[in-house]
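Pasting as-is:
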Amino acid sequence: MLTSLRIKNYALIEDVEVNFGEGLNIITGETGAGKSILIGAMGMILGDRATAEVIRRGTNKSILEAVFDVSGNEKIRRLLEENDYDYSDELILRREISLKGTNRNFVNDTPATLNFIKEVGNLLVDIHGQHEHQSVLRTQTHIEMLDEFGDYGDLLLEYEENYKLLNSLNKELKDLTEKEALLKEKKELYEFQLKEIEEVSPEPDEDETIESELKILENAEQILNLSEEVYLELYESENSLTERLGSVIGKLETLAEFDKEFSDKISEAEGALSVLDDIARTLASYKSKIEVDPERLEEMRERLGSLNLLKKKYGGTISAVLNYKEKISKEYETAVNFSDKKEKLSGEIEKLKNKLLAIGTKLSEERKKTAEKLKQNIESSLQDLGISHAVFETKVEQVESAGIEDLSVKTGSRAIRLFKNGIDKVEFFISTNQGEDPKPLVKVASGGEISRIMLAMKSSLAKNDKLPLLIFDEIDTGVSGRIARKVGAELKNLSRFHQIIAITHLPQIAALADRHFKVEKYSFEGRAVSGIRELSEQEKLEEIASLLSGETVTDSALSSAKELLRSN
């Protein structure tokens, strides 16, 4: 919902801010007062191309800003988050149009491209009356509208999920095919490298283990001599440390007989003797295991050399070598089994395409049934709105491909194109004159007619259409008083499902307003200025009377205006 619109230094507008509400917002005003300027400003906010001509004379920059309440709008949330914009319940779109040509666009105070502004706008607003921002005048939206009117969401979801899977498999096959030539070139190299690594068969951290063992093997004689010398000094030599410490303990025991203060020292000395005994036993065991083995030494040196060569060639560490081996093993396996893998993948793709064709065919049948219901609804609404001989049709057709492409499926002698939402192209056709063949809706030329067609379609699609705001610019052009009442009733009904802003000159429609605004043009300091304000209940009565009687408001017109308001 549009909560506020601010326009500064734009055409005849100096600085206005208007707050809109839910339901039916009506705008009236004399011809030339500036109603079209409001619509133009809204179009600019939604991404229309801007030129310096719109900047108010005597100023350097126009500022246009719209604030929307987007709470619960999941489409807007996804779009913002996918493009790294912050989401909150309040969305602000702002355009700054400069004489210097340095125009700037913002979404929630974050700079944005004009294309992104348009993407956001297309999820928020339809402007009817001119040919911009009318979703129904964009052929690509027709299928979405038809699907929203239909009751086959589960079938559509099943198709879309399988379509995503098809895209994934197609990408996998494409990547595989692109790899084919490269893999064939590298197959022999990978084979050689795998053989080289497998001949050595390195184990994790094996180089570190060997280096530790080599350190001992290379210094075996010195280690053996040193351990023997230490063992002798501790235990077996004449006057060894353990023998001397035993003598010390005996003397401490004698001292303790004279003075008990030495008793604790005896225990400490005995503990030291125990430690020396333990060291001696360890050394005895250790030195018995030390061997001077030149053959084992050479074997370890050769093994380490082989490991170091692999490390040098394939990444610098044993871990890197093993990782590289795992990687090229997969590549080599792919190269060896390429044809089988490609054939298997192609089979899965073909099977999935046929599944999509089956689901898509069911979707087509549902769409054609829905198109008939939509035809009846819209033709009935158009008749109520004064287009009595209207014929509305929805063409649901498949598109043939020139050949079998990634997203095409063969059926009989034809290749049918697969789209993300089915196998159909959908387009609305209409004839508003008796005896004429329906033509593409996007080519309908009459602005007033388009607005009523839009109103009829929006009324039919109202409960399902997710666009929050619909703007109708003089939808009542060429409409009689009798039809105006019906147009107003359609707008009022539509405002139960959408926020509506409608510019009108008919009192029958204005009387239905939930909020009524008036655009006025006045002179200020010798210059024309346009402004807009919300009318009070009394002002609303007088404005409707003015629409009935013209510039001079008569008592009869006031009485008729009261009657119109009462009847609503």
